[in-house]
Design a protein that fits this description.
Oligomer: heterodimer
Strand content of chain A: 15-25%
CATH topology of chain A: Rossmann fold
Structural class of chain A: alpha/beta
Distance between the termini of chain B: 30 Å
Distance between the termini of chain A: 38 Å
Strand order of the largest sheet of chain A: 2-1-3-5-4
Largest sheet of chain B: 5 strands, antiparallel
Shape of chain B: globular
Number of strands of chain B: 17
Number of domains of chain A: 1
Largest interface: A-B, 33 and 36 residues
Helix content of chain A: 25-40%
CATH architecture of chain A: 3-Layer(aba) Sandwich
Radius of gyration of chain A: 15 Å
Order of helices and strands of chain A: EHEHEEHHEHH
Largest sheet of chain A: 5 strands, mixed
Number of helices of chain A: 6
Strand order of the largest sheet of chain B: 3-2-1-16-17
Structural class of chain B: alpha+beta
Radius of gyration of chain B: 23 Å
Strand content of chain B: 15-25%
């Protein structure tokens, strides 16, 4: 299996960076077993082509704007994922939508896809998530870890350093 | 009566560009370029450690992350007058070159070629004839009849199944599409092959940068790529040989496919050498520094006035006052308070939003000037300045392109044709070929330097008490990028990024002179206002940072049609 957890977003626009903040949290808290890559995709588009190609499963984490109230956590699967990016409810539909278009043409689309995201409270300038979004981050991390478990990967938490354990 | 067309692309990643044109008798008679530049960066950086600034600035944009990292470390080093080890300079140059090659290839094939190439026509081509044409011009290994037949079958599959993927939105069958089916097939094949090739450019950036997007190997004072030829874990000979392999692969495609494609496609669009001229005052900065201070460069920069190459005046290095003192930004037509041109170190950003006023304020982009005049930046400016400076590789590849084009057209096409929409694409291909050769030079210099026993990569910066200021200049894929920083007691006090798209997409300036996008659209033909492909051709030729979905609003019919900028 080759699984990718891809967080996308602009960390300079507060809650827009939720996808990146989720993958940072997963990397900091868990040992990542072989077979899974956890990647901070930032704001990029075509540069991620190699990273996304020929995967068995891609889990995208992103800020989404579904029209639902801010803070709504969204979960999508299969064909719903490319459809979401085509219908412009994610701020990154352009980069990701183009990438999925290219992967279709090159025959390298991921076999399975899922997406976890949340509707942002704020897109103001700033590098921190809003407090309310910080709570959603915990929910989404749990969702991603559960999804990976479904795929047969148990993530073990990283032992806290000795100085903290004492 | 003049008909107004509003082309309004929106993206949250790179800001927002809107282009308005008035069309009279099938031609653009007035144009406005209106945009929102990222200006929040000042707020985020204020009070922060200058050592960290590059990590933030490379998140400004999703298309060219590395360039804002490079310009930022150069700005802080410039403020400190900090020399960096030559190894660090060469490693940065390899990243700069590979990133630019990636950007140019993706821009031409994947973001703008479909303005000129009709994918659906390629299905009607005779692959044998197409292969004969391609093989008569080039030694590129994937031009054979089998390859082209396979590509055609693949395209047929997409079209028949309705699964067009990235080709789904295009101006197929538009009257302005002029390529014969065989040329469309060659271009479509190279489009698909370029998807593979651009990965190699990206691999090179990843090997040295540790990660793309958003490289991790920079530091104010150098790079963090430890060099030890006896270690498995750091930059060693095996990694360096891998980099050389990647450069060789890029060279094959850029010289044998990309450069010649411009001639093959351009030969059918020579009328576009007559449109899109716009501003012919050209500005670029020197790139590929060879020493730690930024005094010697392999790619020259400078300024050309009025399209006349004999007026070329060089910009000699990172400290040249001709550049540093020449830049100012006006806000007379932008949604900010004040309208007097200000130097970036004194730059103010006080918003004063009003509506879109044709004669007043209509853009979030400021209007930069060089010694009081707007300037066009980008590969065309770069190639013309390098040619004027007598840069041999530039003259060589410019010659290859114009000779091939002249022989295909059957009449001589000279350097004057470059002042145009077509010329901007041609210059980008020439610059790409120059960059490939430059990568080889930089690679060799790095290897030689390491071979001499020099493994230095970093000089520690020390911040003085009191106020210092610096500028980081970089000839980025879209042109002149400059980051301006004021540091007080080791903390950032002011930070301004004057980006290439600001130079080109800026509104009318303090003296009401239009910016390069606006000027280039004048006289542009528009066959069908509902499908303004020609506007996109000229705007795309600048490689605007907007690969995005756009809204087309016809204010007369008051309906919104969604079109895609491919």
């Amino acid at each position: 299996m080759s699984v990718l957890v891809l967080g996308v977003g602009n960390i300079l626009l507060t809650d827009e960076g939720i996808g990146v903040r989720v993958v940072e949290a997963i990397e900091q808290r868990y040992k990542i077993p072989s077979g899974i890559d956890v990647v901070d995709g930032g704001t990029a588009g075509m540069e991620l082509l190699e990273t996304m190609s020929r995967r068995d499963h891609v889990i995208i984490v992103d800020a989404v704007n579904t029209g639902a109230v801010p803070g709504t956590v969204v979960e999508l699967r299969g064909d719903e994922v490319p459809a979401l990016f085509r219908t412009r409810i994610s701020p990154h539909q352009l980069g990701i939508s183009d990438l999925l278009g290219v992967l279709t043409v090159t025959g390298e689309m991921p076999k399975q896809m899922s997406l976890f995201g949340a509707v942002p409270f704020s897109l103001e300038t700033g590098v921190d998530l809003t407090e309310a979004m910080q709570e959603r981050l915990e929910t989404i991390v749990t969702c991603v870890v559960a999804e990976l478990q479904q795929l047969g990967y148990d993530l073990t938490p990283i032992e806290p350093p000795l100085s903290e354990a004492v | 009566m003049a008909k107004r067309i509003v082309v309004d692309p929106v993206t949250r990643i790179e800001g927002h560009l809107r282009v308005d044109v008035e069309v009279e008798n099938g031609q653009v008679s007035k144009a406005w370029s209106s945009g929102q530049a990222w200006r929040g960066i000042e707020k985020i950086l204020e009070g922060r450690d200058p050592l960290d600034a590059w990590v933030f600035t490379q998140r400004i944009c999703g298309v060219c992350t590395t360039v804002h990292a490079i310009a930022s470390v150069r700005a802080v080093e410039n403020a400190l007058q900090l020399e960096i080890p030559t190894n660090a300079q060469f490693i940065r140059n390899l990243i700069v070159g590979a990133h630019a090659i990636h950007d140019h290839i993706v821009h031409f094939y994947h973001l703008s070629a479909l303005d000129w190439v009709d994918i659906t026509s390629a299905i009607k081509a005779d692959p044998k004839k197409a292969a004969e044409l391609a093989e008569s011009l080039s030694t590129w290994k994937l031009n054979g009849v089998h390859e082209l037949t396979a590509v055609q079958e693949k395209l047929k599959g997409f079209v028949n199944s309705g699964q067009l993927g990235i080709f789904a939105n295009g101006y197929w069958g538009h009257d302005a599409m002029k390529l014969p089916p065989e040329v469309n097939l060659i271009a479509a094949a190279h489009y698909l092959q370029a998807l593979e090739v651009q990965r190699d450019a990206n691999r090179l950036v990843t090997v040295l940068g540790g990660k793309t997007p958003h490289i991790q190997n920079l530091a104010v004072g150098g790079v963090t790529n430890s060099i030890n030829l006896d270690s498995q874990a750091v930059l060693n000979m095996e990694r360096l040989v891998y980099i050389k392999d990647l450069i060789d692969k890029l060279e094959d495609f850029v010289k044998n496919a990309y450069l010649l494609d411009l001639a093959v496609i351009g030969a059918h669009y020579t009328d576009w050498a007559g449109y899109g001229k716009g501003i012919t005052d050209y500005l670029c900065v020197p790139e590929m520094p060879l020493d730690g201070k930024g005094e010697k460069f392999n790619m020259p920069g400078g300024y050309i006035s009025n399209g006349d190459l004999s007026t070329f005046k060089p910009i000699t290095g990172f400290n040249d006052p001709y550049f540093i003192e020449g830049v100012a930004e006006s806000t007379k037509h932008s949604w900010y308070h004040g309208d007097m041109p200000l130097h970036p170190w004194k730059g103010e950003t006080e918003p004063n939003y009003d509506d879109f006023n044709d004669e007043g304020q209509y853009s979030w982009i400021k209007s930069p000037t060089f010694h009081g005049k707007p300037a066009q930046v980008g590969p065309l400016a770069n190639v013309l300045c390098m040619a004027a400076a007598g840069h041999e590789p530039t003259k060589k590849y410019l010659g290859v392109l114009t000779d091939t084009l002249s022989s295909l057209v059957g009449s001589p096409i000279g350097i004057d044709a470059l002042h145009s929409t077509l010329g901007r694409h041609a210059a980008r291909a020439v610059r790409c070929a120059v960059l490939v050769d430059e990568l080889k030079v930089q690679w060799q210099m790095l290897v030689n330097n390491i071979g001499k026993g020099d493994t230095d990569i970093y000089n520690r910066p020390v911040f003085p008490k009191g106020e210092i200021q610096g500028v980081g200049i970089h000839e980025a894929p879209r042109g002149v990028l400059s980051h301006w920083v004021v540091i007080d007691d080791g903390k950032i006090k002011n930070y301004q990024a004057v980006v290439p798209s600001t130079w080109n997409a800026g509104p009318r300036n303090a003296e009401d002179v239009p910016g390069p996008y606006e000027a280039s659209l004048m006289g542009n033909p528009i066959a069908n206002p509902d499908r303004p492909l020609e506007v996109l051709r000229t705007v795309h030729s600048f490689d605007p940072c907007i690969a995005c979905a756009i809204h087309l609003m016809d204010t007369e019919q008051n309906e919104i049609v969604k079109v895609r900028a491919l």
